[in-house]
Automatic annotation (TrEMBL):
Coiled coil: none annotated. SUPFAM superfamilies: P-loop containing nucleoside triphosphate hydrolases. This is ATP-dependent DNA helicase RecG. Plays a critical role in recombination and DNA repair. Helps process Holliday junction intermediates to mature products by catalyzing branch migration. Has replication fork regression activity, unwinds stalled or blocked replication forks to make a HJ that can be resolved. Has a DNA unwinding activity characteristic of a DNA helicase with 3'-5' polarity. Belongs to the helicase family. RecG subfamily. GO terms for molecular function: 3'-5' DNA helicase activity; ATP binding; ATP hydrolysis activity; DNA binding. It is an enzyme of class 5 (isomerase). It comes from Tetragenococcus muriaticus 3MR10-3. One of its GO terms (biological process) is DNA recombination. Its EC number is 5.6.2.4. The keyword DNA-binding applies. It catalyses: Couples ATP hydrolysis with the unwinding of duplex DNA by translocating in the 3'-5' direction; ATP + H2O = ADP + phosphate + H(+).
Length: 552
């Protein structure tokens, strides 16, 4: 419902989305009758102290004024009240869950071997950044607490989250526990296993890989070794937390790029094994307001520093008419022995979108580059074995040019790739473009990302400009949030993203912050549930608790 001005009587009129089966005025009349008959039953769910502190209308007044305000000011006051209410009630649930998880009856104490962990860190082939040291200390402090660790580790592409994960996994192994690392794709699982094995090479750490394509006999062997404690660290996809995969003594579960997990899904993960500590990692920098709403029940660590010597990726925006010139420049790079990605948004032709098909582009680029350079193709409709074979071949420089859809977006690491072309770049979100861009610049050579796009409006042009002006993922994601909204950034059907009726986490960011602080302060009060002032709030939260067991 929106207030769009005055009706024929000169009053502010509500505008509703209606179907052909019901007229606007009919709905208005029905709502008026509902208020007349049941309006007195609208109970207050905010404590009086908060209403007085922020000069909020009562719930009954606000509800009525949202539909039938006397003037524009009353409508704004009503909306202000409803926005605060939505954020505050949501934060009460989230902060309650956080308090419950921090209680001593949850979790395990992991008495890791400090000296062994220090020695492992000292022997790494590179020096940790101050940010990596800080977040590693935060994680290790959590291990020594009797409460269950729930921590989100944020770090931009290439900031060095994997080595922090390796240190954390090694620490739990020194304490006699097992660790698990769960990632979204088999390609990424194999890559992580190879990275860990390289870091653990001189040490007696037994690792294994479990995915949906693991052969039955091998799977049986892995499960047996897990149960008898022979395997220290298991790397895999969702297959590793399925029923029947049981650990002997699981102490830590790390999930990589699982920002699509909602609160309830994260609870399922926490219940695996004997309440293991959980570390969620993401290379998608999440704006503060989005983090508060989607990860409010978790502690957050941020790696906000890049490793020394890492060169920023130069990003350029060109029009489609300039593509042939860009390909000729790319040839010069290939002559130096490097490799390149060419990314396109769709696998098949779409009648709705005039975008180049991956297969068609592959054929065109074969004509352009071969026989001097070999061109490969990677897309989501390939079988897992095919995708892995293509990525392995690209990693070993059997292909110099890889045409791919966004399958390569997350985590794939080919240091020799120094050029990326993104076709129809305006079809992607900013955060996704930033993730894609992070696939180059993984080695020692200067790298370039070329956005090929003919945006049709000012918003599209603005997005291309943002990508050329900053390499900071947090800046990019905040701009993405402002330009597209939270539903588009995380996906409109995102289970991890709460749906608000009146509140907007971008436009009402300041209210969200206030609501979070107030909810935190209330949960810190002793026995607030017993005070008469909070009876309405408690009653409302119990009725709407659903999965939140702390209101049972």
């Amino acid at each position: 419902m929106k207030i769009l001005g005055a009706n024929q009587e000169g009053e502010f009129a509500p505008i509703y989305h209606v179907s052909k089966a019901i007229r606007q005025q009919t709905l208005v009349d029905l709502i008026k009758k509902a208020f007349a008959r049941f309006g007195e039953q609208l109970e207050e769910n905010l404590p009086l102290s908060l209403m007085e502190k922020y000069r909020l209308l009562s719930r009954k007044e606000a509800m009525y004024a949202m539909h039938f305000p006397k003037d524009l000011n009353e409508y704004h006051q009503a909306k202000r009240r409803i926005v605060f209410e939505e954020f505050f009630l949501f934060q009460m649930k989230i902060q309650g869950l956080k308090k419950e998880e921090k209680s001593e009856k949850h979790g395990i104490i992991i008495h890791y071997d400090v000296e062994r962990v220090k020695k492992f860190t000292k022997n790494l082939p590179f020096t940790l950044t101050n940010a990596q040291k800080r977040v590693t200390n935060e994680i290790c402090r959590d291990f020594l607490q009797p409460r269950h660790m729930q921590r989100l580790l944020q770090g931009d592409v290439g900031s060095g989250k994997t080595v922090v994960a390796a240190i954390a996994l090694y620490a739990v192994v020194t304490a006699g526990f097992q660790g698990a690392l769960m990632v979204p794709t088999e390609i990424l699982a194999q890559q992580h296993l190879a990275s860990l094995n390289q870091l653990f090479d001189p040490l007696e750490i037994h690792t294994a890989l479990l995915t949906s394509s693991t052969k039955p006999k091998e799977r049986e062997k892995i499960i047996e070794q897990l149960q008898n404690g022979e395997i220290d660290i298991l790397v895999g996809t969702h297959a590793l937390i399925q029923e029947g995969v049981d650990f002997s003594n699981l102490g830590l579960v790390i999930t990589d790029e699982q920002h699509r997990f909602g609160v309830s899904q994260r609870q399922i993960l926490r219940e695996k094994g004997f309440q293991p500590d959980v570390l969620f990692m993401t290379a998608t920098p999440i704006p503060r307001t989005l983090a508060i709403t989607t990860y409010g029940e978790m502690d957050v660590s941020i790696i906000d520093e890049m490793p020394a010597g890492r060169l920023p990726v130069e990003t350029r925006w060109i029009k489609h008419g300039q593509l042939s010139g860009a390909l000729k420049n790319a040839q010069l790079e290939l002559q130096k022995g490097s490799q390149m990605y060419v990314i396109c948004p769709l696998i098949e032709e779409s009648e709705m979108l005039d975008v180049q098909n991956a297969v068609e582009l592959y054929e065109q680029l074969k004509e352009f580059f071969e026989p001097e350079y070999t061109v490969g193709l990677l897309h989501g409709k390939m079988k897992n074995e095919e995708k892995e074979a293509v990525m392995q071949a690209f990693n070993e420089n059997e292909f110099q040019v890889l045409v791919s859809t966004t399958v390569i977006e997350v985590g794939v690491d080919v240091p020799n790739a120094t050029t990326m072309l993104i076709i129809d770049a305006d079809r992607f979100g900013l955060a996704q473009l930033h993730q894609l861009r992070g696939r180059v610049g993984r080695g020692q050579e200067a790298s370039t990302c070329i956005l090929v796009a003919n945006p049709q409006n000012e918003l599209g042009k603005e997005r291309m400009k943002i990508m050329t002006e900053t390499n900071n993922g947090f800046v990019v994601s905040q701009k993405d949030l402002e330009l597209r909204g939270p539903g588009e950034v995380f996906g409109s059907k995102q289970s991890g993203l709460p749906e608000f009726v009146a509140a907007d986490i971008v436009a009402d960011a300041n209210v969200l912050e206030v609501a979070k602080d107030e909810a935190q302060q209330l949960w810190q009060k002793e026995n607030w549930q017993l005070l008469p002032e909070y009876a309405g709030l408690l009653s409302y939260l119990k009725e709407n608790a659903q999965e939140n067991q702390f209101f049972d």
